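User: Sequence in, structure out. Go.
Assistant: Echoing your sequence, followed by the structure tokens.
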Amino acid sequence: MPGGTMPVITTPHAAVQAREVLVDARYAAVRTGSVRCASTRSVVDLHDAGDGLPRLVLDAASSAVPGLAACRVAAVTVVDARSRRRVRIVASFRMGRPDETGRRHYDPTILSVRLDGPEGTVTVPVDEFLRVEADPDRVRRREVVAHLQREHEAEVLAAVRELGHDVEIVQVAAEGDDAIVVHLLGPHGAGRLAITASAASGALRTSAICGCDRPG
């Protein structure tokens, strides 16, 4: 194209799809650097605010910490393997106070949003992306997944073994539009189990894993 600029192309659902990928994500690839700053690449945690914005959570030893100190603008990439969609957001990050564990939280000012998927590549207008409200059910599911993995990994492992599975590693994850599953890895291979609120056959009950006073 003349001038070498890329047109802004969007679809009615692109902003929603991009926001959904961010809501479900727990990790992101972050690239910092510019012509004046050395480039760094890191895989970092995303804060489980569940609002579909790339809020970074970094350990003090993360290579992204000095990278963001030298150049506040970074590219954040999140991939949803199920839908084969990838979101790349360029944002300027502002560091907040470290939490009680010493981890540093960074809030974004979003500069650009790009969605790659089976349908092609779409440049999503930032104002349109920000206007989209995160699906509350999707947010709640993400909170449950993060809570179970962070606070109840031992209970999940014990519950899986009580069902007769010989496993060593469990990973709680969102799947599809409304499911929560546990991915299993043991000496006999890999597998998966659903986590449900009811006593479905072959599934783990949420109440058997977590007795915390959490809504839903």
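User: And one key feature?
Assistant: The chain has six helices and eleven strands.
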